[in-house]
Design brief:
single chain, 66 residues, alpha+beta, 38% strand, 1 helix, elongated
Length: 66
């Protein structure tokens, strides 16, 4: 089964660490990063995917556990 999530946050070291942590936990980048601005802060986003055991998706899946 393929899991998907989209990380967002201010474009800073904390966001980069979250993406790095995900990569080191087996997630893969999915597409290009996104960047926008809210008038004060640059906001970054990155889609991530991960292949996991199992074939049936359920709303009970906790993406934080992966």
């Amino acid at each position: 089964m393929t899991l998907y999530r989209f990380l967002t946050g201010p474009d800073d070291e904390t966001f980069c660490k979250r993406v790095s942590q995900s990569l080191n936990n087996g997630w893969k980048l999915h597409g290009s990063p996104a960047l926008t601005h809210d008038g004060k802060t640059a906001i970054a986003g990155q889609a991530m995917v991960k292949e996991v055991e199992g074939k049936d998706f359920s709303d009970d899946i906790d993406l934080k556990k992966y």
